[in-house]
Amino acid sequence: MAMSRPIAVVALMLAVASSFGCAGRTGADGRGALWRKASPTSAAPELQRVNTLLADLAERLRPGLVHVRVRRAAGSEAAGEEPGEPRRSTGSGFVIDPSGLIVTNAHVVEGAESIQVRLSDGRRFAGLVGRDTRVDLALIKIQNATNLTVLPLGDSNRLRVGEFVLALGHPFGLEQSVSFGIVSRKGAPLTVAAPGFDFIQTDAAINPGNSGGPLVNMAGEVIGVNSMAARNGSIGFAIPSNLVQQLVPQLATKGRVEWGWLGVSIGEVTEADLERLKLREPRGVLVRDVMPGEPAERGGVRANDVIVEFDGAALEGPRDLQRAVSTTPVGKRVRVTVLRDGRETEVEVTVGLYQERETPRPERPRPPPPPDEPKPDAPRPDAPKEPTE
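Request: output the structure for the sequence above.
Response:
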């Protein structure tokens, strides 16, 4: 007996529905599921302990991380900004004292008209700031904040290359980000003006917005402040925590850091300099030039002097002098031992106050010269500059 039309249609719909219902369980060849479920397994005990440690550490640190939002005054030109760009920016920071002291980067709050700090629990506060652009450090103070999670500052001098570290922050505006890496190097900062301290290089991701966040060791101690990253993002740099501890008291009381200053252009003593300077070995710091009217000239330091001792501390190279001078109190009179024409001489210098030198604004691009005019030699972007101190 032939099937009636309504019954045939219902049967066809049921068949189609049945085929869709089985699609999630049967592969294209009809032989089973489209994916394979993992069987309940656990990582090796050693790996599981590392996973647990990292996850627990990140969870413990996050409440001390803050999000810094900045509104810049109209007409301000912070580094890297062009006229017409948005005047709002964000960065990271972390709490170092229950009274409401927060560390971040100077470039995060540069040109700020107002600063807003948002805690991990969503609370928001306005902040006041002191900053030092020489090492890119800033201190924010928020008022009437309670129950703050303080992140302890560790001893960055004990940090070893190869140690595991976590970098925390708010990259690209993303909340509460954590990246993992190692300490790649301890060396000089990238800017000539920095005062010779060993900055921390790491491969833990430090992206835009991470600036000012903490770099933490496996003991949960902050050993650096995320400061900058290379253009390709593969390496980042952090301000060592011991330097932070030196600068925070001045930032908290004065709103700035008073660095010592001599007013000399300095360089390494090389083998090629020995005969000319009548030296026996390449040690000390070569004075290439003395700035007129600055403390070094007033104290009797001359070009081609080799400084071997400053205020009782022996010097091996330029960074030793940079560290010694920058951390000497302004106005202190110190003894400086120099080798002049091969003879040891002692002078007295009163340490002056370091003043930021204004960086000239870049010129507008010039039109290319005509074909018969030689092009001027452009300076290499990576050409080394002589440090000053």
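The longest helix spans residues 5-21.
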